[in-house]
UniProtKB/TrEMBL annotation:
Pfam families: PTS_IIB
Full protein name: PTS beta-glucoside transporter subunit IIB
Lineage: Bacteria, Bacillati, Bacillota, Bacilli, Lactobacillales
PTS EIIB type-3 domain mapped to chain residues: 3-111
One record GO biological process: phosphoenolpyruvate-dependent sugar phosphotransferase system
UniProtKB keywords: Kinase, Phosphoprotein, Phosphotransferase system, Sugar transport, Transferase, Transport
Domain of life: Bacteria
Any one GO MF annotation of this record: protein-N(PI)-phosphohistidine-sugar phosphotransferase activity
PROSITE patterns, A to Z: PTS_EIIB_TYPE_3 (PS51100)
Modified residues (Phosphocysteine): C10
CDD domains hit by this protein: PTS_IIB_chitobiose_lichenan (cd05564)
Amino acid sequence: MEKLSICLACNLGSSTSILVNKMKQVAAGSQKLSSFDLTIDAIPAGNINTEQVKDYQIIMLGPQIGHRRDEIEQKVITYNIPVTIINAADYGSMNAANILKEAIYQIKTHN
């Protein structure tokens, strides 16, 4: 079973927690994604440290903390984890399907 491990981060982790639940619902309803060992978690950006996030394949930041991307990339640089900023329109509308698609694309294309 192929692994898919996504970390969402925002200021407090509360808005991304809602998004995580929606993403899990999308994945559960997808025949293609049902074959994955899926992990999606939400954490406050201030809690990101290397031990906590080392097993994720991607860290996606809420647009409100996009300005912290460089800082967070430096924290996880040794693990070669891509750090992206969630599209503001998708985040605002809680478009879990688009965000999940983007996460998978970024994981697949990251070297």
